[in-house]
Amino acid sequence: MTKIPLAKLKKGVKAKIVEVTAGKQMAHRLSSIGLRHGAYITKLSTFALKGPVTVKVGSTTIALGHGMAEKVMVEVS
């Protein structure tokens, strides 16, 4: 399967996180909010002009900045 950044995932699509291409501190921060390798997510929305990306992990809804979403690599499930 092909990996793509979370920011490029289409709205309503489910995917599995396969890699976080961020520094150690950002990777830890993302992991602490549930965005870790192997987690399944659903993209809820994207705002225009590189605004925040909203995803659902389990029963939690999380908004990420566009830059952070670019560092989370996913595979469509």
Work out the strand percent.
35-45%
**Strand order of the main beta sheet, please?**
1-6-2-3-4-5
* Tally of separate helices: 2
Shape: globular
Main sheet overview: 6 strands, antiparallel
Rounded to an integer, what's the Rg over CA atoms? 11 Å
- What class do helices, strands and sheet pairing give? alpha+beta
| Share of residues in helices | 10-25%
Distance between the first and last residues' Cα:
9 Å
What is the element string, with H for helices and E for strands? EEHEEEHE
Number of strands: 6
Q: Which descriptors apply to this entry?
A:
77 residues; alpha+beta; six-stranded antiparallel β-sheet
Could you please describe the fold and organization of this structure?
The protein is of the alpha+beta class and 77 residues long. Helices cover 18% and strands 40% of the residues. It has helices at 24-32, 66-70, and strands at 4-5, 14-20, 40-46, 53-57, 60-64, 72-76. Strands 1-6-2-3-4-5 form a six-stranded antiparallel sheet. A hairpin with a 6-residue loop joins strand 3 and strand 4. The longest helix has 9 residues, at 24-32. The chain is globular. The relative contact order is 0.35. The mean pLDDT is 92.
Summarize the structure.
The chain has about 80 residues and is of the alpha+beta class. The protein has two helices and six strands.
Question: How are the secondary structure elements laid out?
Answer:
Layout: E1 4-5, E2 14-20, H1 24-32, E3 40-46, E4 53-57, E5 60-64, H2 66-70, E6 72-76
Antiparallel strand pairs: 1-6, 2-3, 2-6, 3-4, 4-5
